[in-house]
Design brief:
Blueprint (H helix, E strand, L loop, with lengths): L14 E9 L8 E8 L2 E10 L4 H20 L4 H21 L7 E10 L4 E7 L3 E6 L2 E5 L5 H7 L30 E2 L4 E2 L5 E5 L1 H4 L4 H10 L3 H19 L6 E9 L14
Antiparallel strand pairs: 1-11, 2-3, 3-4, 4-5, 5-8, 5-9, 6-7, 6-10, 10-11
Helix pairs in contact: 1-2, 5-6
């Protein structure tokens, strides 16, 4: 009987390394929030960008992040339906807070959520608004969310170029956000993505992605040895590009996740030993 392959045991969970940054940029208050939680072999990472005066945006993003983490810890489920329920719970909690505090009735928040099943080596995600999620594989952009924004609709209709997503004066007009009455629903991936070693995710608010191109993200991913290295390299470019523009910088939040396969590699039968 042949010996089993060391690579056949898919029960060994992938290992995740995380890095995060969040700061106010040129604003007085940081209305972004972020969070991560691990429950059994399931991981949940969230970034939210709040909108609203009088600290309303800060409250909104915080409620969204904490509500999703609360529901995730309680249910610890993985799948499109579970992810949809986490976001619906956040919507309900924010609506409740709006009703309790009338001066905050117009607060809202974007959100992007990543779920990873480490044991089964797969991921899925959801978003509302223009907080983005990117997946890079072997340093190449494999997948990216599409903004729920007026300018994204213009791009899709051929009225704007993709470059204008970062610079158009109406780029902040959203078609979906948590807490907005009549908002479009969250976009939830309906099929899971199988993970490979060295896959890398970036979740970030518009204050981050507006100042760095996808090509620059890719190059930084290729050169980085860790989630922290990748984040540091990208943030340096964000700071450089933003300061060169003479435009007041927005709140800036980013989360990087690197996937590692702990299984020992097996040399190919056709490889030549060094």
């Amino acid at each position: 009987m042949p010996e089993p392959s060391l690579l056949s045991d898919t029960a060994i969970p992938v290992v995740l390394s995380l890095a995060q940054l969040s700061h106010a940029g040129g604003r007085q208050v940081n209305q972004d929030s972020w969070g991560s939680v691990l429950q059994d072999d399931l991981a949940c990472m969230i970034v939210a960008d709040g909108v609203g005066g009088e600290y309303g945006g800060e409250i909104a993003s915080n409620v969204v992040v904490n509500s999703i983490m609360e529901m995730f810890v309680e249910e610890a489920s993985f799948g499109p339906r579970a992810l949809q329920s986490y976001i619906e719970h956040a919507v309900a909690q924010l609506q409740r807070r709006q009703a309790q505090i009338p001066r905050l009735k117009d607060m809202s928040s974007t959100v992007a959520v990543l779920l990873i099943d480490q044991k089964n080596r797969c991921a899925l995600w959801a978003h509302m608004g223009d907080t983005r999620l990117y997946l890079f594989r072997q340093g190449k952009l494999l997948s990216a969310t599409r903004d729920h924004s007026l300018i994204q609709q213009f791009v899709d209709a051929g009225h704007c170029s993709a470059d204008q997503l970062r610079r158009h004066p109406r780029r902040s007009i959203l078609s979906a956000a948590v807490g907005v009455e009549g908002s479009a629903p969250a976009t939830v991936t309906q099929s899971v993505t199988e993970l490979q070693g060295r896959d890398a995710f970036l979740i970030c608010t518009d204050g981050f992605w507006e100042w760095i191109s996808e090509a620059e993200m890719e190059q930084a991913a290729i050169q980085a040895d860790s989630a922290q290295d990748w984040l540091d390299s990208m943030h340096a470019l964000v700071e450089k590009n933003g300061k060169a523009s003479n435009v007041p910088l927005d709140n800036c939040t980013a989360f990087t996740i690197r996937v590692a396969d702990p299984r020992p590699s097996v040399p190919s039968a056709y490889s030549t030993p060094l």
